[in-house]
Design goal:
InterPro entries: Alpha/beta_knot_MTases (IPR029028), Ribosomal_eL30-like_sf (IPR029064), rRNA_MeTrfase_TrmH (IPR004441), SpoU_MeTrfase (IPR001537), SpoU_subst-bd (IPR013123), tRNA_m1G_MTases_N (IPR029026), YfiF_prd (IPR016479)
GO molecular function: RNA binding; RNA methyltransferase activity
Distance between the termini: 120 Å
Largest sheet: 7 strands, parallel
Order of helices and strands: EEHHHHEHEHEHEHEHEHEHEEEHEH
Protein name: tRNA/rRNA methyltransferase
Number of strands: 13
Number of helices: 13
EC number: 2.1.1.-
Shape: elongated
Organism: Phytobacter ursingii
Length: 357
């Protein structure tokens, strides 16, 4: 009798039969070292008998039964998934927990309100180019139209490397993002700068310094034009009540990059700040369209604070009475006065001519 079994390819097939004693001794898988041994049956029996029994009974175990059978012998695991249980009849949905990694994570409304108060949107190609060149870290998000992206290659590359979100959108979307049709093809969402105090400013000022002080100047286009003149004539400090005013979108766009060369100086009030500047050795200079020393015959101090008032009524009486020198800009008298931003440019140009040129 030949005890060799050969398949069609001629290879020898070796068959083993494990005794009941051997299967009882096997307590775990020798290859993986896991799991209890199968007792009382061979591997062939373990694989075939349940199928035949299920076939003969005409019924497959229900899914719940199979799950219970598998879970009964399975050890407890440290699964990252967790089951939330609710009492019968409690239809209250469980509070979603996104771990703070999705757009649906919960944000405290107060935190969101404070965050929005600390941010502002600036737009205009020159303004955004200057902002990126001087303080890119303040950028939170950016929007571009396709036509300006070639001129913002460095900004796009930097934002991608530093995980700053940016979007290439059409004109209608950019109008929504910036809040204006005069966006110039680009808009940045940025963190606002904090103002500096009078004490901090005078501590680092040199022997020649001109500070522009604004009392209730509210038109952002005038403010932007004044910042542009300040940047051109080397005036770096602007005293005002609210430091955020110089970073309004319209003002920054009108300044055409000049906003990056000025720093806001703040205090409890403009009048109190003027007193602090006077104590630090600055002369307080005001303007008047009706009286005062003609500009081109006046000597402007090397260290001075030039005070300008709101567009319609000019300076308050309190500010006028606080002046060390009052200046008028002579002309044809065909109009009552110059626009406040134009007057600023004329006055700063004369200060530059006398002390810097």
């Amino acid at each position: 009798m030949n005890d060799e079994l050969k398949n069609k390819s001629g290879k020898v097939k070796v068959m083993y039969v494990r005794s009941d004693d051997d299967s009882d001794k096997r307590s775990q898988n020798p290859r993986t070292g896991k799991g209890p041994g199968r007792s009382g049956s061979s591997r062939a029996d373990a694989g075939r008998r349940p199928a035949r029994e299920e076939k003969n009974s005409g019924r497959r175990p229900a899914r719940d039964e199979r799950s219970n059978d598998r879970g009964r012998d399975r050890p407890q695991s440290d699964s990252p998934w967790r089951t939330v249980s609710r009492a019968p009849g409690d239809d209250t949905p469980a509070k979603p927990d996104h771990g703070g990694i999705s757009g649906k994570s919960f944000i405290d409304p107060e935190v969101l309100r404070r965050q929005r108060a600390e941010e502002t949107r600036v737009y205009g190609e020159n303004a955004c180019q200057a902002l990126f060149a001087s303080r890119p870290d303040c950028i939170v998000r950016a929007w571009f139209v396709q036509s300006v992206t070639p001129r913002f290659k460095e900004a796009l590359r930097w934002m991608a490397a530093n995980r700053k979100a940016y979007h290439v959108v059409d004109d209608a979307e950019l109008v929504k993002a910036s809040g204006t049709e005069h966006h110039g093809g680009v808009c940045f969402l940025i963190k606002k700068r904090n103002g500096t105090s009078v004490e901090q400013w005078v501590a680092q000022a040199g022997t020649e310094d001109c500070v522009l002080a604004l009392e209730d100047v509210g038109n952002p286009h005038n403010l932007g034009a004044m910042m542009r003149s300040c940047a051109h004539f080397g005036v770096k400090g602007v005293l005002l009540q609210d430091a955020a005013v110089i970073e309004s979108g319209a003002a920054v766009r009108t300044a055409e990059g000049g906003a990056e060369h000025v720093q806001a100086i703040t205090g409890d009030s403009v009048l109190e700040a003027l007193d602090a500047f006077r104590k630090a050795g600055y002369a307080i200079v005001t303007t008047s369209s009706h009286k005062g020393t003609p500009l081109f015959s006046a000597t402007l101090p090397k260290k001075m604070v030039l005070v300008l008032g709101q567009e319609r009524d000019g300076l308050s009486d309190a500010a006028l009475n606080n002046a060390d020198l009052s200046i008028s800009i002579n002309g044809t008298n065909n109009v009552e006065s110059l626009n406040v931003s134009v007057a600023t440019g004329v006055l700063l140009a004369e200060w530059w001519r006398q002390n810097k040129a």
